Amino acid sequence: MKFYYETDRLSLKVLDGANAQDILRFHQANRKLFEQYEAQRPENFYTEDYQRRVLNHEFHMCIRQTGIRFWIYEKTDPDHVIGTVCFRNIIRHVYQSCEIGYKFDPHSWHHGYAQEAVSKCIEIAFYELNLHRITAHIMPDNTASIRLAERIGFQLEGVARKSALIRGVWEDHMIYSILHP
Question: Quick check: helix, strand or coil at residue 131?
Answer without folding.
Answer: coil
